[in-house]
From TrEMBL:
Domain of life: Bacteria
Family matches, as PANTHER family: 5-DEOXY-GLUCURONATE ISOMERASE
Keywords tagged on the record: Isomerase
EC number of this enzyme: 5.3.1.30
GO MF term list: 5-deoxy-D-glucuronate isomerase activity
Protein name, entry field: 5-deoxy-glucuronate isomerase
NCBIfam families (UniProt xref): myo_inos_iolB (TIGR04378)
One matching Pfam family: KduI
InterPro entries the UniProt entry points to: Deoxy-glucuronate_isom_IolB, KduI/IolB_isomerase, RmlC-like_jellyroll, RmlC_Cupin_sf
Amino acid sequence: MSHLLSKKQTLEGSTQTQKITPESANWNYVGFEAHTLRKGETFAVETGSNEVCVVLLNGKADAKTNEQQWDNIGDRESVFDQKAPFAVYASSNDCISMTALTDIELAVCQAPAKGNYPARLIRPEDCQFESRGVGSNRRHVCNVLFSNLEADSLLVCEVITPSGNWSSYPPHKHDQDAAPAETQLEETYYHRIDPPQGFVFQRVYTDDRSLDETMAVEDGDVVMVPEGYHPVGVPHGYQSYYLNVMAGPSRNWIFHNDKDHEWIIERDKKIAADQ
């Protein structure tokens, strides 16, 4: 199994199904956890030196930080509901806790903090929707904590890719600290599949092929992208959701397309203009 693939785990007595740390991923910035809670259970995360964005993927919960509280948040039963999520953001030396009012699923996104921004609730109306690509390259993006809202390091978005389509495609990368041409951002992909017995394929590769991994990814798995291009393909009959978490030396998403496949962008622009 690829060292870039973290399989979903269910441990008795634990809510945690995924845990990626900078140490376990052998990188510097991104941390990610996934948790499932039964009604009545509480989850809490101390932010320490990080900023943290806890995304309520489904269900309803009461949420609080050290100084604020928000009751009965959550407005979707599934990540495939075509609704934006609720999320809670907090910076360093704080704590986010969630108490499940129904069964819930949480994504915990972490990166180094500078303490510039206060704790806040991110509501669905704060998120930003956009669709990208044409034809079998069509996918739907929800920016949760991206260009729509400020943060120190974190970039968080959701992507739904329809059956038979490709996403993060044409292949692109962001592994060079060379703005304005490209920025360096580590990235995790938290995958969910509908129906859940399905799978998707994700390839992570560099120009010189010193890294070249192709993975069959199942529901609840995480793919780590330390460098290189990272497209996702969705088989017929299934639809794909993934939550992206990115962070790096600067909070700026500038990517570089694989030059071998960049011609597809110009073709797609022509197709869109003719429609």
